[in-house]
Amino acid sequence: MAPPTRTLLVANPTARTGRAARAIERAMQALERAHLDPEFLPTRPEGATVPAIADRIEQGDVARVVYLGGDGTFAEAAKGIILARERSGIDVPLGMLPMGTANDQGRSFGIPAGERNIEKNVEIVRRGIEQWMDVGRIFAFDAEGTCIAQDLWFDNCGVGLSAQILAARNRDRDLVGRVPLLRRIYRDKIIYTFAALRSLFAGMMTGGRRFAVQLTVDDEQHRFDNVTDIVLLDTILYAGDWVFDPRTRADDGLFEIVVVRGHADWAAAAISGHKHNPVTEDDLAVLGIPSRQVLRGRTIEIDLERAEDTGRIFAQIDGEEWIVADRYRVENLFHHLRIIVPEDAHFI
C-alpha cells in the first residue's frame, strides 16, 4: 500500500464573524503548493468534531492533521488524533496554523499566529520535524468522591481567579456578539482585559474568592491558605506572554503548579514572569516581595476548602470554562501527542 499523503485541515469557517473563511482558503492554497494534498474538515457543533476527525483518520490515507484557529481548535484536533489511536492504533502528528489571541501552544514552540504567517507555518508542516508533547487528563469529583467529569487538556488548567476571569469574558463575549457594531470593536484581548480588570477590582473590594487548598503532588502533601488561583502548566507560556517557570517543558512528564495568594502575588508573578521583562526574583526580593514556589509533579490532587460565603470556585482547561467541583485529580500522560515543530523549537 502507498504511504498516506493527505493533510487534514481542521478549522471553524464561521469563527471571528466569518473572517476565518479567508484564512482557510489561504491555508488550503499554501498546503496545495507545498504538495501536502490538503482536505478541509470543518468543525462541528456539540462535540461532534472529535469523532469526525477520528473517523477520517481511520480511513488510513491521512498523513497528518493540521489545525487552523485558537486553543479550542487545537484541543479538538488533538483529541481526534488521540481517539483514532485509541480505537484503531493509527497515529498521526498534529501541525499548527495558529490564529488565536494568546497562542500558547504555537508560541511555546516558535510558531507565530495570524493569517500573515500561514505560508511560513505551512513550510514548518512540510518539513515535518516532530516532537512529543505530554497531555493532561483531569477528573472532577463530587462531595461523595464520585467522578462526575473527565477531559484532556494540552496547555494549562486551573481553578480560581483566572478561571473566573474567563467566565466573565465568555459572558461579555456572548453579550457583545448580539450587537454587530460593538463586536467589531470590543473583542479578543480587549474583552479579556476588561473582564480581568473588573474581576480584580471586585476582588479587591470584597476580599475575593479566597480558599484553602490541599495539594497532593506525587504523594507529597502541601497545604496553602488564602489562595486566589492555582494554575497547572504544560507549555512554557501562559496567556501568550508569561513564563512562570523557565524549567517548563511540554515533553518532560511533569506539570508545573503555580499557587497564587492575593492580588499582590498575582502582580509579582505578572511582573517577574513576563517574557520580555528584565525584572528578576532578586529584584522583587529587594522590594520585599517573596519569590513564588512552583511545584512540579506527574500526578496532582487538588482538594479545595472554601467558606460557605465564598461562592463558586471556577475552573478552566485550555482557556475554556470547565466543571466546578471541590476536588480534582490531574494525571500527566507522558509523550501522548506528536506535534510538528520548527527545527529550533523555542518560545517566542
Topology:
Blueprint: E1 6-11, H1 20-33, E2 38-42, H2 49-57, E3 62-69, H3 71-88, E4 94-98, H4 104-108, H5 118-127, E5 130-141, E6 147-153, E7 156-160, H6 161-176, H7 180-185, H8 189-206, E8 211-217, E9 220-227, E10 229-233, E11 255-260, H9 263-273, H10 281-286, E12 294-297, E13 299-305, E14 315-317, E15 320-322, E16 327-340
Parallel strand pairs: 1-2, 1-3, 3-4
Antiparallel strand pairs: 5-6, 5-16, 7-10, 7-14, 8-9, 8-13, 10-11, 11-12, 13-16, 14-15
Helix pairs in contact: 1-5, 2-3, 6-8
Account of the protein in words:
The protein folds into two domains: 6-128, Rossmann fold (3-Layer(aba) Sandwich); 136-334, Tumour Suppressor Smad4 (Sandwich). It is built from ten helices and 16 strands. With 348 residues, it is of the alpha+beta class. Helix content is 32%, strand content 30%. The longest helix has 18 residues, at 71-88. The strands form three sheets. It has a six-stranded antiparallel beta sheet with strand order 6-5-16-13-8-9, covered by helices on one side. The chain has a six-stranded antiparallel beta sheet with strand order 12-11-10-7-14-15.
